[in-house]
Every structure is written in C-alpha cells, then in structure tokens.
Amino acid sequence: MALLITDKCINCDMxxxxxxNGAISMGExxxxxxxxxxxxxxxxxxxxxxxxxxxxxxxxxxxxxNVETEDELLEKFVIIQGLA
Length: 84
Fold this sequence. Notes:
This protein is of the alpha+beta class and 84 residues long. The chain has one domain: Alpha-Beta Plaits (2-Layer Sandwich). The protein has 2 helices and 4 strands. A hairpin with a 4-residue loop joins strand 2 (24-26) and strand 3. The protein is globular, with a radius of gyration of 12 Å. Keywords: 4Fe-4S, Electron transport, Iron, Iron-sulfur, Metal-binding, Repeat, Transport.
C-alpha cells in the first residue's frame, strides 16, 4: 500500500527529506506521495518515517487506491534500490 497525504497537510516540509525513496514532492497545493516510489519504508525502516515526523495526526494515511501486500512493497523496494 502506498501512503497518501491528505488535505490536512500544512506544508511543513517535515516528510519530504525523510523519505528514503524520494517519493514525496510538492504538488499543486500540498505535498504528494508518488505511489510508484512509496514502499511505506519497507526495506528501510520498521514504520513509515513520513508518518513519524508529521506533526498533524492522521495527515498521512494508507492510500485506498494503491493497496499492495508486504511482499509487493519489498519487491518494489528491491527494484527502486537497483538490487534486482
């Protein structure tokens, strides 16, 4: 499952530098997460760092339109890191 930044985002820029995959960038009005690059930090950390540093409760949630298993997320991690 990729993560999704909701419209609760205050554009504090805490999440962007914490993403190990470079999946977070500024969108038209708030930060956005590229679902093709988001692995929920699988392969890097135990839990998503963007959620850990976000000062707004429930601002970064599971993206219901991009549901993936843990195996799929780990496979994506391997591809992104060039380990395949």
